[in-house]
Specification:
13 helices; 9% strand
């Protein structure tokens, strides 16, 4: 019996520790979202993807799939773009992604919505992020409803103000509309995207009583954005990184240092970069239209970078010079939001009214229930104590 205990107890300890709270969890300082979305969401980890608790108590998957296909956005028809996004979202969801990132300005929300339907994955088991475009800031409430309609869902897990463009009062007004949607249960978390490039707008948002949960910025080993990350910590805001692989600009995927680390782990450079994001406590949302790369990108939870390797990668930072984009925001904007239609083969317009593929059962969300996590951990502790004293 002693031999059995010697074998079983370490395994049970590992089992318990792997579900403990993340070291990157935030203190809960903000009011929780309205009950509508909270009662439906039931996101479970897949492929080893961890969660990070946001400052409102909602747990967010730390890894996701970016759906933007910039090279196809110039076609005003949007059919080919949405068909491709439909395809890639389906591929991502069937590869165990549980987090999708889109935006009105990507012109692909309809493709994302149909990709979810096509995958037959329960909407309530997916984290969906979208972004309100500056053109909608002066009518934000209707803009939010439009996003929900295009995605064929009745709530979002995260909604960003996409760019700090326009009159500051209008930006703040749009933010307040998002807070109202949050309190109404249409949104589970709210954030600001690219606001680090216009501090006037950032400071105006931080003067509001309700603070954002997430700040989205460009971030990768060549532009690690340490100053901006520290700024986010001031308000206990989680940082999410777009362009985490820098779209292989400046040869980042053939970097000699990163290649050496990748070889040591029998992984690709892309996987090493994404793993670096995870161990830095950042949320990463890489995108791809290649099914093989989509699967490869999420296969990063079976290895760890050493402290030495993490420090080596930190040494690759080029500061602001390493950024791919550094937009000087002001009152002018450059996106022309033109409505589009997309109904793929095999669907019809009536699909949109019944797209809420979620059941109405008010299942408790594993991604926002700290009490559930505590009870689960205590249960496992009981099992360990049982083996220690009675086995």
């Amino acid at each position: 019996m002693k031999d059995i205990k010697t074998f079983i107890i370490p395994i049970l300890m590992i089992f318990m520790l792997t579900s403990c709270d993340s070291e990157f969890d935030h203190e809960v300082t903000q009011e929780g979202p309205g009950s509508g979305a909270q009662s439906k969401s039931n996101i479970q980890s897949k492929a080893g993807v961890p969660f990070i608790r946001l400052n409102n108590g909602v747990n967010m998957p730390q890894f996701g799939f970016g759906t933007q296909i910039l090279s196809m956005e110039s076609d005003p028809d949007r059919q080919a773009l949405n068909a491709k996004v439909d395809e890639t979202v389906t591929a991502a969801l069937t590869s165990d992604y549980i987090h999708l990132d889109t935006a009105h300005a990507y012109f692909n929300e309809k493709g994302v919505g149909y990709g979810i339907l096509r995958s037959k994955v329960d909407r309530n088991s997916i984290w969906i992020t979208s972004k309100l475009d500056p053109h909608e800031f002066d009518d934000a409430s209707n803009g939010i409803d439009g996003i929900l309609e295009r995605l064929q869902t009745d709530y979002l897990d995260l909604l960003f103000l996409h760019h700090p463009v326009g009159n500051i009062n209008t930006i703040v007004s749009a933010y307040r509309a998002m807070v109202e949607a949050y309190k109404a249960g249409k949104v589970r978390a709210i954030g600001i995207s690219n606001f680090d490039n216009r501090m006037e707008a950032y400071n105006a948002i931080m003067e509001e009583e309700f603070k954002p949960q997430v700040m989205q910025i460009e971030c990768h080993p060549y532009a690690q954005r340490n100053e901006t990350r520290e700024l986010a910590k001031t308000y206990d805001i989680q940082v999410e990184c777009w362009f985490p692989l820098k779209h292989n600009q400046d040869g980042i995927l053939s970097d000699e240092t990163l290649t050496s680390i990748a070889n040591a782990h029998n992984k690709s450079v892309a996987q090493v970069i994404l793993r670096w994001h995870i161990q830095e406590g950042l949320i990463a949302i890489p995108g791809s239209t290649n099914a093989t790369h989509i699967k490869e990108n999420i296969d990063i939870f079976d290895f760890e970078l050493t402290d030495s390797e993490m420090n080596t990668i930190r040494g690759l930072d080029q500061g602001e010079a390493g950024r791919a984009y550094n937009i000087p925001y002001g009152n002018d904007w450059f996106t022309n939001l033109v409505d589009y239609s997309y109904i793929p083969e095999g669907f019809n317009s009536s699909s949109e009214s019944s797209s809420d593929s979620s059941s109405d059962s008010s299942s408790e969300s594993s991604s926002d229930s700290s009490s559930k996590g505590i009870n689960f951990t205590l249960g496992k502790l009981f099992i360990i104590l049982f083996f220690v004293f009675f086995a």
